[in-house]
Design brief:
CATH topology of the largest domain: Outer Surface Protein A, domain 3
CATH class of the largest domain: Alpha Beta
CATH superfamily of the largest domain: Ribosomal protein L6
Shape: elongated
Oligomer: single chain
Mean pLDDT: 91
Number of helices: 3
Radius of gyration: 22 Å
Order of helices and strands: HEEEEEEHEEEEEEHE
Number of domains: 2
Structural class: alpha+beta
Low-confidence stretches: none
Strand content: 35-45%
Largest sheet: 4 strands, antiparallel
Distance between the termini: 70 Å
Helix content: 10-25%
Strand order of the largest sheet: 11-12-7-13
Length: about 180
Amino acid sequence: MSRIGRAPIPLPSAVNVDVGEHLVTVSGPRGTLSHRIPGGISVRHEGDQVLVGRDSDGRTHRALHGLTRTLINNMVIGVNQGFEKRLEIVGTGYRAQARGAGLSIAVGYSHPVVVDPPEGMSLGVDGPRVIVGGIDKQRVGEIAAQIRRIRPPEPYKGKGIRYLGEHVRRKAGKAGGKKR
């Protein structure tokens, strides 16, 4: 049996879980999230924890067991604490500025790129860093990836937008040999 799927999901006191027939709704201080439960997977709320089970040992049920448990756990963490991803802008003249709820990013194009956050998401600037926050872990990662895609780090000088702590493999430039 799946070790991840078997583990109970602890519920903080501020989080409320509502388990329907095919839908789990998690609400907390930061908002509400819901997830559709696939067939063959059962979810039950017992006391201060949520347990996820499966009907059979079929390959798809085994695969969905741990996945469903992790998704529900991420929902619990998201509505209680939230998630954030940090991006770093590297390069001379490259910068980001807060513009209302969104961002204005200058990364070497002839115009600044304006990024507006979707509903329920927040974008912030801390020096050369961009902070993407929200309660849905998947959406936070998607928005961070879209911002990184504006100017991904290039391998020669390392300039661009990268995740905080991301290692960019550098290439050697021209050899600069003797002219004849």
